[in-house]
């Protein structure tokens, strides 16, 4: 007996020492958590909110008292907890009946309130998840290794717009169940980065590239019958040299990446596997969900059940029952079976069927565990009345979200999230006067000091601007527009809004009468690209001269800069098969300064030269010297002066029309 007492005293001392070590870690962890949360969601008042200031005077009496059914349900839960701790002494305490905002114990399943808010975005799981992650402010758990002692109703959480992972999960699960999903709240364990919402070691989702389909796969999809690839005429020696150079560059990049990984590698977490976290489980089946998955309520992102960030599960619950996980979580959640009807893998607090479960003969202890709980839950075996009927919703107030608050989207209309080498800022629509709703800043270093690129998203703008990308290294800005712009503008790339600097514009050709697809403007050049025109024009290149003197606008007293002088206009045409090749113009050049017009026709079949015609504009009557021609493959013909005069007259009129179009394009720029 003395030896046993000494052993017990030694074990108690070891447990006390471990508890002291864990408490010391928790003190350090609390500071670390505050810093990480401040980094992930800045600016933040996470630790300044006083939960005792929540007004509970207007809440119904059901929030402040328990009915007879609820008391009976709490008794069943307590009895289940006693059996559970007796049969599983090494397991942590279950999260069964925390207190609500009024300090009254409530069974966790009764805190869930299936809710379908009247907004189309919240009818799908991704809309619900993104709304909860954006609308609420994250608060860390008071103790990282134990679940909270309180669990507020979704109504109160929506009102205060903040909560811990359990509050996030209960609200999200309530919305998903209301939308028809088979969703459950999960009490388990996760990594430090997931529990503290620290995304500074993960790349921003907006920067992730789409997976490209391999060329071999594309070849397989192309079918059996396909064109043979042309012969490769490149030098093999040059290819080998380029491959060696590429390998050296790749090795250098890999070294730099390894250095960055070592610099940004998280320190070893002393509480790895012990950090409590809550998330949402969505089972396959309802709402055509093909595969079971997790949702992290802090980020609103979906995860596979094989994700390494999830380290274990203690229990899950919905608005009808509570299940305790009896499976081994040494490999995280990878090997878990999510068939909640399997009584070997999951133990239920409340009986769901009057029929006894069929267990293998070697599971007598589990059978005793289930039977003992079921005996308390069944009031009359003949009638088959179960404790499932005891669950009554004490949350009489259905969560209500006014339209104005729903459109606010974020706490105080703004939210900031930090990622690896990136910062994401979000605003509510109409909060900024320029329509800015999202900004992503990409940095070159982990400390986020050197800006590389800035992307901005806009909504509800009159000019239909959607996205703006600014490259800080090249100072190049690209604006993207949605259909509906006054000029049919699709994209605009520039370094400055001054006309003398370079501009590249792309257009929605279906909204333009001239079928303009692209416009490139430089200091003294302008190139227009067309698509699908009836006259087969596809390119127009204009060379501009120097500007003249500034002129006064009549009657206004203001000065405007003179237009650039048009020196040359070059137009290129596609082949018109309705005309002979030597009559179908391929290139037309108006030499405005030289008063000359050049025509080059398409090549005839089996000819290496093309027909040409040059006109020289001069005052007076038409003479043979005013036109020179070359007819490919034909003898020199007599010139019909009347025909040439009419052609020159038409070309002169066409030149004036084209010059007018160029001036219109200048004004449009």
From TrEMBL:
Keyword Chloroplast tagged: no
A Pfam family hit: MORN_DRC7
CEP76/DRC7 peptidase-like domain span: 276-348
Keywords for this protein: Cell projection, Cilium, Coiled coil, Cytoplasm, Cytoskeleton, Differentiation, Flagellum, Spermatogenesis
Localization, UniProt: Cytoplasm, Cytoskeleton, Flagellum axoneme
GO terms under biological process: cell differentiation; flagellated sperm motility; spermatogenesis
Gene Ontology cellular component annotations, sorted alphabetically: motile cilium
Coiled coil segments of this chain: 641-668
Occurrences of domain Dynein regulatory complex subunit 7 MORN (ranges): 411-669
Primary subcellular site in the record, as a coarse category: cytoplasm
Chain residue ranges for the region called Disordered: 244-267
Family statement drawn from the similarity comment of this UniProt entry: Belongs to the DRC7 family.
Protein name stated in the entry: Dynein regulatory complex subunit 7
Origin species: Atlantisia rogersi
């Amino acid at each position: 007996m003395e030896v046993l007492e000494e052993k017990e005293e030694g074990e108690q001392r070891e447990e006390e020492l471990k508890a002291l070590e864990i408490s010391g870690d928790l003190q350090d962890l609390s500071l670390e958590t505050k810093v990480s949360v401040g980094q992930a969601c800045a600016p933040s008042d996470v630790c300044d909110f006083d939960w005792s200031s929540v007004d509970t005077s207007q809440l119904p009496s059901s929030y402040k008292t328990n009915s007879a059914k609820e008391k009976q349900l709490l008794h069943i839960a307590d009895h289940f907890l006693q059996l559970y701790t007796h049969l599983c002494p090494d397991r942590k305490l279950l999260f069964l009946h925390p207190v609500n905002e009024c300090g009254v114990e409530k069974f966790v399943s009764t805190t869930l309130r299936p809710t379908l808010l009247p907004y189309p975005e919240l009818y799908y799981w991704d809309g619900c998840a993104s709304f909860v992650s954006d609308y609420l402010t994250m608060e860390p758990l008071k103790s990282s290794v134990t679940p909270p002692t309180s669990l507020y109703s979704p109504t109160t959480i929506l009102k205060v717009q903040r909560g811990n992972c359990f509050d996030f999960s209960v609200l999200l699960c309530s919305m998903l169940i209301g939308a028809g999903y088979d969703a459950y709240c999960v009490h388990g364990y996760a990594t430090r980065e997931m529990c503290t919402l620290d995304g500074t070691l993960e790349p921003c989702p907006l920067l992730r590239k789409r997976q490209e389909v391999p060329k071999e796969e594309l070849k397989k999809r192309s079918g059996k019958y396909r064109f043979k690839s042309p012969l490769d005429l490149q030098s093999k020696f040059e290819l080998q040299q380029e491959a060696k150079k590429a390998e050296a560059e790749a090795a250098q990049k890999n070294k730099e990446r390894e250095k960055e990984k070592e610099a940004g590698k998280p320190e070893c977490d002393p509480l790895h596997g012990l950090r409590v976290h809550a998330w949402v489980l969505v089972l396959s089946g309802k709402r055509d969900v093909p595969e079971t998955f997790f949702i992290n309520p802090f980020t609103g992102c979906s995860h596979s059940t094989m994700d390494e960030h999830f380290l274990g599960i203690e229990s899950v619950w919905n608005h009808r029952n509570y299940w305790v996980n009896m499976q081994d979580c040494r490999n995280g959640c990878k090997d878990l079976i999510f068939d909640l009807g399997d009584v070997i893998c999951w133990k239920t607090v409340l009986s769901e069927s009057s029929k006894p479960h069929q267990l293998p003969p070697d599971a007598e202890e589990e059978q005793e565990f289930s039977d003992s709980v079921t005996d308390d839950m069944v009031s009359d075996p003949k009638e088959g009345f179960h404790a499932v009927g005891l669950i009554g919703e004490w949350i009489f107030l259905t969560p209500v979200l006014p339209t104005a608050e729903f459109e606010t989207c974020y706490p105080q209309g703004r939210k900031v999230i930090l990622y690896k080498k990136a910062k994401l800022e979000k605003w509510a629509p109409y909060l900024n006067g320029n329509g800015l709703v999202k900004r992503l800043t990409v940095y070159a270093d982990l400390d986020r000091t050197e800006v590389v690129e800035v992307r901005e998203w806009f909504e509800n703008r009159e000019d239909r601007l959607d996205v703006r990308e600014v490259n800080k290294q090249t100072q190049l800005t690209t604006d993207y527009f949605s259909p509906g712009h006054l000029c049919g503008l699709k994209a605009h790339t520039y370094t400055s809004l001054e006309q003398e600097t370079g501009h590249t514009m792309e257009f929605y050709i279906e909204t333009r009468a001239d079928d303009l697809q692209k416009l490139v403007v430089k200091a003294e050049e302008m190139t227009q690209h067309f698509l699908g025109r009836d006259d087969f024009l596809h390119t127009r290149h204009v060379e501009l001269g120097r500007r003249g003197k500034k002129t006064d606008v009549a009657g206004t007293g203001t000065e405007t800069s003179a237009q650039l002088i048009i020196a040359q206009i070059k137009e290129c045409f596609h082949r018109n098969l309705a005309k002979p090749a030597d009559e179908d113009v391929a290139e037309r050049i108006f030499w405005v300064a030289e008063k000359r017009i050049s025509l080059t026709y398409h090549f005839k079949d089996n000819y290496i030269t093309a027909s040409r015609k040059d006109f020289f504009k001069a005052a007076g009557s038409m003479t043979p010297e005013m036109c020179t021609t070359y007819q490919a493959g034909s003898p020199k013909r007599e010139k019909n002066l009347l025909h040439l005069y009419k052609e020159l007259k038409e070309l002169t009129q066409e030149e004036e029309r084209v010059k007018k179009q160029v001036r219109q394009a200048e004004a449009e720029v």
